[in-house]
Amino acid sequence: MTARRRALIAGLPALMAAAALRPARAQAPAPGGPHTLPPLPYAAGANEPHIDAQTMEIHHGRHHQAYVTGLNNALRDHGQLAALPLPELLARLDQVPEAVRTAVRNNGGGHANHSMFWPIMGGRGGTPSGELAQAIDRDLGGMDKMRTDFNAAGVGRFGSGWVFVTVTRDGRLAITSRPNQDTPLMDGGRALLGNDVWEHAYYLKYQNRRPDYLAAWWNVIDWDRVAERYAAAKAGTLGV
Ligand code: MN3
């Protein structure tokens, strides 16, 4: 056994204890492994006409499932890491053995991002209210500017990746994007919401027209779910 691996194993009980001491999450639970595919919280056609049912079925049932399977496979021989809740695992990628670190990053990130993604859709768009609306006005210049800047970040992400609105524990918002399946969780942060700009998210309906997909996506946001995520972030209970 290498010194690095001994150090990793020695440090794990503290990580596990810290995870166990956290209060039960009010929503967006993040149980440890083995990781499982969360069901779509609505029918595959619920986001029509903006996102077609076939894209939803393939995206959820095949792409997301592949990340879950890949993550469990990567963690198969690393039982203590496999038991960590996903946010804790992704915030400590530097402690994951190098042999499986890239697989955990890509598949764990993919599992986290998509687990956030499905529940914030299935809505009717529109605008949020209350505290969340005030935070958008204060930190992102209002709804119109938020959408414009968010869509620009999504268009500007070369290749595959995600665009996010991040939220801090004190409720501050910011727009950012990440390549591949990277997530703000990897920096110990949290995503309030995010959109997937991999071609698999939109190609069947929009082909190469990523800007059209980004613009249409706001029509399916469920702002009640996003407001729940905002409250959970401020309470320190937001999982993925
Ligand atoms: Mn995807």
Describe this structure in words.
This protein has helices spanning 3-21, 53-74, 79-82, 86-91, 98-117, 130-140, 143-156, 203-206, 210-217, 223-235, and strands at 161-167, 173-179, 191-196. With 240 residues, the protein is mostly helical. The chain has two domains: 53-120, Fe,Mn superoxide dismutase (SOD) domain (Helix Hairpins); 130-234, 3-Layer(bab) Sandwich (minor pseudopilin epsh fold). It has a three-stranded antiparallel sheet, sandwiched between helices. The longest helix is centred in the N-terminal third of the chain and has 22 residues, at 53-74. 33% of the residues are buried. It binds manganese (III) ion.
